Amino acid sequence: MESLKKTITIIASIFAFNVFAQDKTLMNAFSQSYEYEYAKQYDAAIATLVKSYADASYETNLRLGWLNYMAGKYKESVMYYQKACLLMPAATEPKWAFINPLTILEKWTDVEKQYYAILKLDPKNSSANYQLGMIYYYRKDYVSAKKFFEVSLNLYPFDYNNLLMNGWTNYFLGNKNAARIMFNKLLLLSPNDKSALEGLSYIK
Q1: How do residues 21-43 score in pLDDT, each as one tens digit?
Q2: Structural domain tally of the chain?
Q3: What is the pTM of this model?
Q4: Helix 2-38 crosses helix 42-51 at what angle (to 10 degrees)?
C-alpha cells in the first residue's frame, strides 16, 4: 500500500512538472511573439507560436488569427479564428476578431453570419445591430435596416451615426416626419451637418 502511494505521488509530480513546463514554454512563445509583433516581424511571431501550437488552445488560435491577419495572410487568419470560435462558442471576442479578415476577403455573407452570432449571445449589442443595419441599408432593404438601426438608436439616442442612418432610412421608407426629427436632432449634435441639411431639403 505504501509503495502504491509513493508511485502515485511520483506520477503526480511528473505530471505537474510536465504541465508547468508546457505552460512555461507557451508563456515564452507568447512573450516572444509580442516582441516580434512590436517590430512588425509578423512571420517570425507566427513561427514562434506555431512551434508551441496546440489545436485545443483557444488563446493560441486567437493569437494566430490576429498575427496572420496583420501579416496579410487572411485565409490562414480565418482558419485560426474559426477554431477559436468553435473552442469558445459562448464568447463574442473571437467573432468580432473573425469579422476583420472576412471583411478584407469580402465574404459578406460570412460577415453577416458573425454579426447574427454575436446578437444571439448579446441581443442588445449596439455595434452589431448598427453594422447589420448598414448591410441591409446598402442592399436597399430599408425595412430590415430600420429594425437594427432602431435598436442601436434606443441604446445611444444622441449618437451621430445612429441619428444619421435612422434619418435616411426613414426618409427612404417614406416616413418623412420621423426622418425630419432625426435630421433636426442631428443638427443639435452637428450644426450645419451637410447630410442632415440635404435630407431636410428633400422633405417638404
Answers
A1: 457 889 999 999 999 999 999 99
A2: 2
A3: 0.85
A4: 170
